[in-house]
Amino acid sequence: MEKTLNRIHPVSDPEATYFLQVSWERDLGTGFGIMLSDGQCAWSGTVSEAEISREAADMEMNREKYVEELKKALIAGEESAGKYNFAIS
């Protein structure tokens, strides 16, 4: 299993720091686990392969392109800093 951990500062609260951990088996496109923590509380969930396909279709985006964008936003870290915004609600 592969994992990444990134520090994010959401646009909804730029002074706050959150930690985003993403874990996956073979490929992000086959589904992944996600955990978000503010250092005091943590929230976790999973995203299935079917949910990824459904979201790509809803956005009228090629599935492979959608998975590449997910990788950039969720696991690329410093490479994508400033290119993606996160909002916590």
TrEMBL record:
<feature type="domain" description="XRCC4 N-terminal">
    <location>
        <begin position="17"/>
        <end position="88"/>
    </location>
</feature>
<dbReference type="GO" id="GO:0003677">
    <property type="term" value="F:DNA binding"/>
</dbReference>
<dbReference type="GO" id="GO:0032807">
    <property type="term" value="C:DNA ligase IV complex"/>
</dbReference>
<dbReference type="Pfam" id="PF06632">
    <property type="entry name" value="XRCC4"/>
</dbReference>
<dbReference type="GO" id="GO:0033152">
    <property type="term" value="P:immunoglobulin V(D)J recombination"/>
</dbReference>
<feature type="coiled-coil region">
    <location>
        <begin position="49"/>
        <end position="76"/>
    </location>
</feature>
<dbReference type="GO" id="GO:0005958">
    <property type="term" value="C:DNA-dependent protein kinase-DNA ligase 4 complex"/>
</dbReference>
<keyword id="KW-0234">DNA repair</keyword>
<keyword id="KW-0175">Coiled coil</keyword>
<dbReference type="GO" id="GO:0006303">
    <property type="term" value="P:double-strand break repair via nonhomologous end joining"/>
</dbReference>
<dbReference type="InterPro" id="IPR009089">
    <property type="entry name" value="XRCC4_N_sf"/>
</dbReference>
<dbReference type="InterPro" id="IPR053961">
    <property type="entry name" value="XRCC4_N"/>
</dbReference>
<dbReference type="GO" id="GO:0010165">
    <property type="term" value="P:response to X-ray"/>
</dbReference>
<dbReference type="InterPro" id="IPR038051">
    <property type="entry name" value="XRCC4-like_N_sf"/>
</dbReference>
<keyword id="KW-0539">Nucleus</keyword>
<keyword id="KW-0227">DNA damage</keyword>
<protein>
    <submittedName>
        <fullName>XRCC4 protein</fullName>
    </submittedName>
</protein>
<dbReference type="InterPro" id="IPR010585">
    <property type="entry name" value="DNA_repair_prot_XRCC4"/>
</dbReference>
